[in-house]
Amino acid sequence: MNRFYFANSEEEMEFMPIIPLNEENDGLEDENIPDELALLPLRNTVLFPGVVLPITVGRDKSIKAVNDAYKADKLIGVVAQKDSTIEDPNLVDLTDVGTVARIVKLIKMPDGGTTIIIQGRKRFKISEIVSEDPYFKARIELLQDEIVTDDPEFDAYISSIKDLAGQIIQLSPNLPSEASIILKNIENESFLVHFVSSNLNCDLKDKQQLLEENNLRTRAELLLKLLQVELQLAELKNKITNKTKADLDKQQREYFLQQQLKSIKEELGGDSNDREVKELQRKAEKKQWTEAAAELFRKGIEKLERMHPSTPDYSVVYNHLDLMLDLPWKEYTEDSYDLKKAKKILDNDHYGMDKIKERILEYLAVLKLKGDMKSPILCFVGPPGIGKTSLGRSIASAIGRKYVRLSLGGLHDESEIRGHRKTYIGAMPGRVLQSIRKVKTSNPVMILDEIDKIGNDHRGDPSSAMLEVLDPEQNGTFYDNYLELEYDLSKVLFIATANNINAISPALRDRLEIIDLSGYSIEEKVEIAKRHLVPKQKDAHGLKALKMRISNGILERVIQDYTRESGVRELDRQLASIMRSIAKDVALEEEIPESLTEEHIEEILGKSRYSNEIYKVGNPAGVAVGLAWTYVGGDILFIETSLSEGKGELKLTGNLGNVMKESVSTALSYLHAHAKEFKIDPKLFSQRNVHVHVPEGAVPKDGPSAGITMLTALTSAFTGRKVKSYLAMTGEITLRGQVLPVGGIKEKILAAKRAGIKEIILCWQNEKDIKEINPDYIKGLKFHFVKEMNQVVDIALLKK
């Protein structure tokens, strides 16, 4: 068969069938081959006898050798070059064994190069180099093949070689399928081995080893091993190619379908979401978020790209990604560590509150020295209207942080804190993350307002959800159900506010640093009104430029006669009423007084709402004045006792709680047991019914504080001795007659001062609470510190 199959380049040639011009004639006769031949070194190629190869000759020495050989007998010695990278090889760079080749055709190429078609004839070994210039010329010794005859094993080798070579051709996409047919038609075993060896895709040294082997059987055995390796490689390559092709086909199919889907959407009038997705990706490039957040965002974007904007889930995914972009991951404001400036801001914004200001300055001092710390969870507890919430804003201003307020009053769904899962319609992130999103920083001052007013029903317990938010050990990994990620809240300065600490669950209370804020004294209220409330109300009513003076006396009159509170909210409203009246006069161009008088106040606010006259009237025997604590501050309570003919029954009225009822029973039992000491006839206890009443019956009353007041009132009723005027008392009693300490002392003392009380009886253990009150605020009050009930009776009851 006089045909050739050429590949495009040597790199693509895996198993290229090159058919000889004359398969049967294995070569010229030995005597036609001269003893000396010009040598042609080849890179990456070994020529086998009988095989035809096209060779491009580029080196000057090689071109000259080819030209001279072509002009002579057209025979040349072809040897392989050991290292293909050497441009100008020496003798040591050439192999010893090569193949005598006949130049079948010499073609001059347009670019100046030369291409020859050569056919291998006989193997030879270099005996001696005759000359090196202008090209290598060597004396050669022809090598003879050891032919195998009548060997079944050799025949099996040849058959296996054909099968393996055929399989390799089928697995190689670069080889034509006709090659396997040609391969099967080769009958000469020697040529078959040479033909397959020549086109084997293996290392040069393996091919050279095949060429140097004299025994044809051994050569076939070696070739079979190399073919098996080649087949395994081809199978693996084919497997990888098919897998890659399948993956590519799937991607191309998906891409094609996506493009079709996009076209259909646009035809239906839908708007492509490309612009929105690109905008989200552009924003994401600027975010400094965690790896988990970046991965979740990437998945969300991929999901969004596959959706049409009109599908319901599109807005869910888009809103979730929008939240992730809006949250200030790792974005913090810089704290201001100027303690003097912070103290000045706190003093300017709030009068008094020295204990709290001290605590804030301590926090700042630690932050300044350490550089970083887990923010404490402060909880301001006190009556309404004393500035707990506004104090949080002042703290934020003092340390240079942003301020955000979270109102918890009436919250009953824990999802409001933790967020709803995205599967619900109208799902939203929790209030905590919403606030962080709004304020655009991860370390704001966050006011948790009215934490004691959190509800609790079948929808969940929000106060339990707050445990994670308010635990410095846990809030670094706060998990929001909507975000589906952990968010770091450890840098947030949480400040909770509450009126009644007992309404906060014990587990939550344990996580809070409780700071008690007591009510204001009259002197403090006057200062607050002068510094803050009056200027604020003037400004609010357009009277900023008006030069009108309100004296301390007038402010004190408004406080005493028109307000009854621990804070200053009602005072603020009364001042607003005064400013509205003055604004009306200014608008009507009437004469405005330079300073307000009591007549003006009475004209604007009406007659006094509250009076201390009730406490100045002498009370009959059986009536005592007690001091009570309410969540709005201190208050005065009358305990009224009356005796009537009967069988010793006890009647209680005035909406009393269990603890207060028990205090009456305890007091009566103690009095009965010690009747002789108090000069009471023991028979009276079985002949008289006792009725104890606490006025303002619509208001629920409870607590142990009225214990000594109850006993004083009962003793007064049974002995007929009146209680001293302008005297109030507070304290718990025991059956042994001991007086125990109670809480809320400052509020109670201030309430007594407002009511015009002059003497107060307290437990001796409450003396420390009195020392914490500014002496100026309790000037004129006389305190009696007692240990036992005998002392209380001696101080409180007048002689007959």
Give Rg in angstroms.
53 Å
Say how many strands there are.
Answer: 22
Q: Please count the helical segments.
A: 27
**Main β-sheet: number of strands, strand sense, barrel status?**
5 strands, mixed, barrel
Mean pLDDT: 80
Share of helix among residues? Answer: 40-55%
| Inertia-based shape | rod-shaped
Cα end-to-end separation: 151 Å
Sequence of strands across the biggest β-sheet? 1-3-4-5-6
Regions with little confidence, pLDDT below 50 for 5+ residues:
1-29
Structural class: alpha/beta
Proportion of residues in β-strands: 15-25%
How would you explain this protein's 3D organization?
The protein is an alpha/beta fold. 42% of the residues lie in helices and 17% in strands. A five-stranded mixed beta barrel has the order 1-3-4-5-6. Strands 8-9-12-7-13 form a five-stranded parallel β-sheet, with helices on both faces. It has a four-stranded mixed β-sheet with strand order 14-15-17-16. Helix 26 links the parallel strand 21 (759-763) and strand 22 (782-786). The protein is rod-shaped, with a radius of gyration of 53 Å. Mean pLDDT is 80; it is low at 1-29.
Q: What is this structure, in a nutshell?
A:
The protein has 27 helices and 22 strands.
Question: Which helices and strands, and how do they pair?
Answer:
Layout: E1 36-42, E2 52-57, H1 60-71, E3 75-80, E4 97-108, E5 114-131, E6 137-142, H2 152-171, H3 178-184, H4 189-198, H5 204-212, H6 216-267, H7 274-284, H8 291-305, H9 312-326, H10 339-349, H11 354-370, E7 378-381, H12 388-399, E8 403-407, H13 415-418, H14 431-439, E9 445-449, H15 462-469, E10 478-480, E11 485-487, E12 493-498, H16 506-510, E13 513-516, H17 522-540, H18 552-562, H19 569-587, H20 598-605, H21 613-616, E14 623-630, E15 633-645, E16 650-653, H22 658-673, H23 684-687, E17 688-693, H24 707-719, E18 727-729, E19 732-733, E20 739-740, H25 745-754, E21 759-763, H26 767-771, E22 782-786, H27 789-796
Helix pairs in contact: 2-3, 2-4, 2-6, 4-6, 7-8, 8-9, 10-11, 10-12, 17-18, 17-19, 22-24, 24-27
